[in-house]
Every structure is written in structure tokens, then in C-alpha cells.
Amino acid sequence: MPEFLQFAFSGLTVGAIYALVALGFTLIYNASGVINFAQGEFVMLGGMVTVFAHAAGLPLPLAALTALVSAVVIGLVLYRFAIEPARGASAVSLIIITIGASILLRGATSIVFDKNFHTLPPYAGSAPWIVGGAALLPQSLIVLGGAAAIVVALWYFLTRTLTGKAVLATAANRLAARLVGINTNAVVGLSFAVSAAIGALGGILMTPITFTSYDSGTLLALKGFAAAMLGGMGNPIGAVVGGLVVGLLEAFSAGYISSSYKDAVAFLVILGVLFLMPHGLFGRGGVERV
Amino acid sequence: MMRRFVQSPYAVVLALAIVIAILPLVLPSTFYLRVAALIWIFALAVVGLNLLIGFAGQVSLGHAGFFGIGAYAVAIGPTHLGIPPGLALILGAIAAGVVAFLVGRPILRLRGHYLAVATLGMGLLFAMVFANESAWTGGPDGMPVPRPVLFGWRMSGPWTWYWIAGVTLVIGAWIAANVIASPTGRALRAIHDSETAAQVLGIDVARYKLIAFVLSAVYAAIAGAYLAMFDGLVTPEASGFLRSIEFVTMAVLGGLGSTLGGIVGAALLVLLPQLLTVFHDYEHIALGLVMIVVMIFVPAGIVPSLANLLGWRKS
Description:
The structure holds two protein chains of two kinds.
Chain A: H1 2-32, H2 39-55, H3 60-83, H4 91-112, E1 129-131, E2 134-136, H5 138-160, H6 162-172, H7 174-179, H8 184-210, H9 217-231, H10 236-256, H11 262-276
Helix pairs in contact in A: 1-5, 1-6, 1-8, 1-9, 1-10, 2-3, 2-4, 2-8, 2-9, 3-8, 5-6, 5-8, 6-8, 9-10, 9-11, 10-11
Chain B: H1 2-7, H2 9-26, H3 30-55, H4 64-81, H5 85-107, H6 112-132, H7 134-137, E1 143-144, E2 149-150, E3 153-154, H8 158-181, H9 183-193, H10 195-200, H11 205-231, E4 233-234, H12 241-254, H13 259-275, H14 283-297, H15 302-309
Antiparallel strand pairs in B: 1-4, 2-3
Helix pairs in contact in B: 2-8, 3-8, 3-11, 3-12, 3-13, 4-5, 4-6, 4-11, 5-11, 8-9, 8-11, 9-11, 12-13
């Protein structure tokens, strides 16, 4: 039982980060139909900029804020100079653009900062609590609490504010949204900014646990993408559930089966789910017009 | 007559054969011969992948998995099982085809981004097996690949592989041209335009998608085997995610649905790092920029856009 709890704790912690990445994918996909493979780089930037701003002498909260702002700026630049000019390009071309952007960001980070692994001191001490025989790090709780707060804030923004409703309207039908006077370009830009912020926050939260380096974004993007697809692309609840499921699957298969095949088990389950439910757990099948 | 020939896929094959035959006469050193051999090897994989993405319209982010199967077949076969390299290559290509056949049925039912994530997962699974089964594959460090020996002739060096890869590429492009011109090619294009419409017309959509998938897997496996034998070494990177992305990028940059495009795309992405070795640190930035800029300004890919510009294409 303590073992089980231990794996569950670590799975939920990692899963929360995947959920944030998946949410970022979902937001941008809903607003623009683009699968943004650079989403993992926002997480990486969140961690790396915080580390280096902190090392340069900024207090931790200010360093985190710097990271958040720089990720948002980069998200907006990405939209303005790489996505918007390519409007109307095919889905594959857009995927290549975002992968190009992620390679570029990785390269730029390795030059501006370095190629080493970095970490941050835990935000609330490193003495673990013992829950049911399993060790729970305070930082894990911060990750889970932070992720939950982000999800709630996002839900509030989307359903309770006028701007948020404009985002939902654009996701539902871009043309109709424009007809009722919504500036859909601004909405897409906003969704890039919000996605970048969510990703950066994920990076800031997880760096004390998992380390970060210039190339840590790729795997996160893959896992987040898989989680978003598992939940059903375009469904925010699906993204969160998908992220947690992928995290738990990884932790349990690493614990009970083999740590070198933990990623394999996660992907096998995703493949299995997609075969049975081709639109993910929470996705709806569309009707194709010929 | 002339115009029709220029537009036909066979013209590309002929032009390619001529270029491959003449190029060694003008290349100043074996270094360039080596780069050219690499281009032909990658182009082979991309020509196959183009059948799947460019004609059938099905995206795969996991073809490096098949590339890896071919590469590890020529490594494991001779080293652990005593199979001669040539036979190992053929067995590897068959294995990739069989795997593609078995995996393709369920995977190809998925559409769009769901297909992308499924193929991605498939590719990663292969990479993980290659990285983890160290007893067979040498683990993350990879394993050496013995050079094949044909009638006492040891096949190694850029000159030999330039010709092997070049001739295979011409044959591969010729087979692809045949497929494109055949009823299968027409069926694939119909599926690309609209799966439902193709089905209503009586096209067995699942079957034709599977044909394209298996063919592209075999192309990738042969290319993988060549690269492994050329380098004399294979590592799990051969089937990594970045390799898969590299193939798709080559196909898209050059121009989907164009065999010549695939070759041009492969040449561009093989040459770029060679040109950029001077600015080694900036290589990734430049690669990312090229991908973004080409996709923004020539979204249809380099070759189709050029052909349009020159008025070679019926609009």
C-alpha cells in the first residue's frame, strides 16, 4: 500500500505538469486549429529563465515573474511572426512551423543560457511528509495545488468573463464569432499568450523536482500532445484528465513493470484507447461533409 | 509531346539518373561524394514517405521507427544471428513491411491529429526497444554494423555507397512513378481529396491506405539499412522522434505530392548542417528559421511552387 501511494503521488505530480501542457495545446488548437509543438518550450523557458534570473540575483518571485513575462512575449512573437503569416496553410505545414519554432527556441536557449541541467531550491522546504507510509514532498503539493489553481482560473476566465466567452465563441465557430463582432485574430493571439503563460507556470512549478535544461521541452510536448489526444482534442477537461492519466500510467508502470519502458506503457495505452475510441476519451466524432 | 513528358513522373526519374551519373565527375572531393550519398539515402526514405503523405494524405510522425528496423536488421542479423548483410537487409525490409501491415490496419482508421499521435507513439516504441534491449542492440550507445562483402568486394567508402544509394534511389523513384501512374495512385489521390467520396466511388479506402503505408515503410527500412552500413554504426537516434520529423520536413519543404520535391527537400536538409558547421552553435536556430520561413512563403513546398512559377503545371 505505501508503495502504491508513493507511485500515485509521483504520477499525479508529473501528470499535473502534462495536464498543463495539454491544456496549452487545447487552448491554441481550439482558437486556431494549430497543434503547437512548441508548447513544451514554454515549460522549458519557464524553468530556465527562472533559474538564470534567480542566479543573477533576482529574488525568486521576481525571477518567476520574469520567466512568465518572457514566455508570454515569446508566445506572442511566435503567433505574430510565424503562425499569423501562414494562415490558410495546411495542417502539416503548420505542424512543421511550430516544430521549427521549437527547434529555434531550443537552439536560442542553449546559446543565451547553456546546455547544462539546472534546478531550483524547493519553494517550501524539502522535508517530506509521511502519508500512509509514503513520502510526499511539499513541492509535489505545490505542483498539484498550483496546477489546480491554474485550471480553476482558466475555467473562470473562459466561462465568467466576456473575453473568455469570446475565446469560446471563436473556438466554436470562427466565422460566426467574427460576424458578431469578435476580433478573432486578437483572440488567437490571446490564446497563444495564455498557453505560453500556463506552460511557463508549469515549468516554474516543476523545476525544483525534475531539473530543466534547454532540451527538456521536446518530451514534455510529446507527452502533453499525447495527453490532449487521449482526452479528446479540443476538450479542456479531457486535457486535464488525459494529463493525469498519462502521468499515473508512467509512474505505475515504472514502479511495477520496468522503469526503462515507462514511456512505452503510456503510449501503448494511448494507442489502445485510440483504437477503441478514435476521438479520445471525451472527444466527439465529427461528420465529414463531402 | 515534350510538354507532356516534362510533366510526367518518369521525366523526373530520367533527370535524376542523369544527375546521379554526372555528379561524381564535377564533385571536387570525396567529402562531397559522401554528402551526396547521404542525400540519396535520405531521399529514398522521403520518396516512400511522400507516397503516404503526399498522395494518400496520411501523416506519419513515426517513420523513423521503420528506418530503425532496417538499420538494426543489418546490425543484429550479421552480428548475432550470422545472417549475411545482404540477406539481413532484405529481411529487414520485409520485417518493416510486415510490421507496417499489422500496425497499419488499426492505426490508419484514425484521422488527422489522432493518426499523427498514434504514429508518433509507434515510432517512439521502436526507439525505446532499440535503446533498452542492450543485449541485442548495444543500448543507447548503439552497435557497430559490419560492412557487407559481395564476391570478395568489401562495400565501404563514399564512392561505393554513392553508387549503391544513387542506383537504388533511381529504382525507388521509378517504382514510385509507376505506383502514382497506376490505378492505385489514382485511388490514393481520390482518398486524399475526400475519404468519404472515395468510398462512395467504391474505392477500398482502408486497403489503399495500407498499401501506401507498407510501401513507405519498406522504403524507410531500406534507407535505414543503407545509412547504418554506410556509417558502420547504428544508434537508437536512428528511430528517434527527431528523425521522423526530419523525414516529414524534407517531404513538406520540397513539396508534397512531388517525387522531385522529396529529393530536393532531402538535399536541403542534408546540406544545411554541412553549410552551417562554421556556425555550429547557431545550427539549430538556422534550421528552425528555414523551416518557418519556407513554410510561410512557399507553403506548397519548393518544387511545386517553382514549377508553378515557370508555368510547367496545369493549374
